[in-house]
Amino acid sequence: MDIQKLKDKDLSRQDCIELFENDDLFFDTLKAANELRKDISGDTVTYIINANINFTNVCSLNCGFCAFRTSATSPDAYFMTPEEVGQKALKARLAGALEICIQGGLQKDVDTHLQIEMIKNIHETTAPYGGISIHGFSPMEIYAAAENAGLDLKTAVIMLKEAGLNTIPGTAAEILVDDVRKTLCPGKIKADEWEKVITTIHKAGIKTTSTIMFGHIENNEDRVDHLLRLKRIQEKTGGFTEFIPLTYLHENTPLYAKGLVKSGASGLDDLRMYAVPRLLFKDVLPNIQVSWVKLGAKFCQVGLSAGANDFGGTLMEDTISRAAGAKYGTNMPRQRIEDVIRQIGRTPQLRTTTYTHVEETQNKSVVQA
Length: 369
What we know:
Number of strands: 11
Strand content: 5-15%
Structural class: alpha/beta
Strand order of the largest sheet: 8-1-9
Shape: globular
Order of helices and strands: HHHEEHEHEHHEHHEHEHHHHEHHEEE
Largest sheet: 3 strands, parallel
């Protein structure tokens, strides 16, 4: 399979599996993905100034990959009020953040009405300082919160949008294969239900990211089936802003403690998870993001030469990855991000959540149409 063919061909399921498994194709795959990235995105690497708020670590589920959750009776348990969430968002805005990503555990006390209170507090608190974009609540959180509020899904999504929810993280996807989910996250919605939630969100006019968490108990066929589902959704709705591969951090997780996994993905598979989706998605889903908090800045430079075009965000805080065993910090200053990008001969570009470029005018962020 030559490089030009890899760039041009509409890859089949079997093609993708072969690219994951055939070591002889490894470097050609990376080269083709990098060339295709350049054709689609040029040499610009986008990033965002953002911050995470995990409003509670109490969760009724017990997913095998999660080292963050705790029980309500734990001395480490916490639950922020909407006012506390608003103050955290204000702190982030004053530090220059354009986006706040808010997520938390699943429990009966969290319903759509509480989510709306958090959204309103964030907007009211940050409005005098230019406001902030709210990227909040996973599809699983929205599904569960609607159920807790006695609302149908479509009504809940519309209410969240009207309250000011701007975009939604496409997390809780993990691996969209039910046989894997039975062991990995048995309490979460099935793959078809996740797709229903995400398409409902897209049809309501809300953009989302898309993700995959890989390197645990899934195989290459499962990875490819997940990617093909994302591509099918994107072709139908156009609602995904980006694709974010999330390598499984194993050290502190229940799966590792039980001996069900020995480690996470190899470095080669991390790179394949940038390259193969690039060749599969092409410009249908043009933005692919590296994860510096999971892989470190230098490995992300390699990822940016294997099909990825986005560096993610400053984060300011990432308690979920840190709990799982991340060792690369939870806050990367903007200047450091730009330095990392320039080191590989690429041009950094500040962006919004929806990939509109942002220019600086007199120390203020100005969105360019």
